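Render this sequence as a predicted structure.
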Amino acid sequence: MRELLSNRTFLRLLVGRLVTNAGDSIYYVAALWLVHDLTQSTFYTGVASFLVMVPGLLSFAVGPLVDDVEVRWALVVTQAVQGLLVLTIPVAAWFDALTVELVLVVIPLASLVNLVTYPAQSAALPRAVGRENLSSANAVFNTAHEGVNMAFNAVGGILVGLAAVGAVGAFLVDAATFGVAILLFAGLTLPERRGDPNAETDDVNPGDDVTAAPDGGNTERRDSESESESLRERTRRYVGDFRDGIDYLHGTAFVPVLVPQIFISFATGMMLAILPAFAELRGSAGLYGVLLSALAAGALVGSVLSARLDRVPYGYFMLGGTALTGLAWVGAALSTWTPAIVAFFALAIVYSGGNSVLFDTLVQTVVPEHKLGRVTSSMATLGQIATPFGSLLGGAAAAVVGPVPIVLFVGGANFVGTLYFALSGSLRSLPSVASVEYGDDRIEKFRSP
């Protein structure tokens, strides 16, 4: 850890990560609250939540792009573009031209640009710290990520709740975070990429005109046609890897485990869409940010507890976890006392935070290493695909029935998951994560009853 703290490049990356996390948290809170404030309609907040999340479904295609650009300039340009997009909101408000349509255009564009930010930071990390310190560096990054989310979700809620600031003022604060991030990333220096026979950025032929890049990488003058072909080939390979990952999943325990999770993530998407309306019903804009912070806190607690739960039979862990989550969501929906609502929200996400760690560990243990990347990316896509569409439906449904029944529905969705696990003897008999070994037949050759 001392070596990391004395590494200026790592510290610059870490502070940049903290600043971008803070900006993203404020942006998400302000965007959904502004749409709610402009329209007083859960339908529009559902559309806004959908537009925030749906660009994430294209994340599988970002890898080739990040591989083909300089990390430093990828970070600087994305922060600059996002900052300009965010600034359009307060500028429009200044000229009395702010409309919900403008906000709904800005939201997906900012989310789309943001897809590059975190992969670029991840790509820079091994070059900044070296392989021997990578595990510790990732741990610091992930802990900082959750901690900043907790803090700045609450800050975003406080900002939009203040009459002197409001959602538009929160966008100004958010734009300032992008300015700070630009200053941090612009001074980033990285060592050259290590030789990789598969990395086209390092394939330099004699006679090529090459200049040293400021971030330590190599900038090659290629004609636009070959660069375009390279990107297409890489993207095609990513799509092929996704299909290979799906093929591997057939016949494994991962598919029946994922099925209820997809349904639950759909229901959770519904809840996220109506959260501003639910917070206003139970309190204020400030409560909205606090509830988002409670979700981040619950996920962090679950992640920490997962180290103590890896010896619990995984089937019973899922059975008990979904039941506890369902009870927590019902409690959150029916409670009117603010501290109880916040506590229930935190409790409702503890299982999800712990299960994320245990499930990832299970996958990393069982799946052959040469297939691990494509399998994990395929499952991540399947796990995320339902959430934005849940937001879209949740906003429309809440416009008819109100926000409380939607929160109750999330609880019901988890109870359906509990029933699913209870009725499947094969799933209940899944072993503890700690007892699973590479190529374990109990996982790879799973057979449903």
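Summary. The domain at 1-221 is CATH 1.20.1250.20 (Growth Hormone; Chain: A;). The two ends are 49 Å apart (CA to CA).
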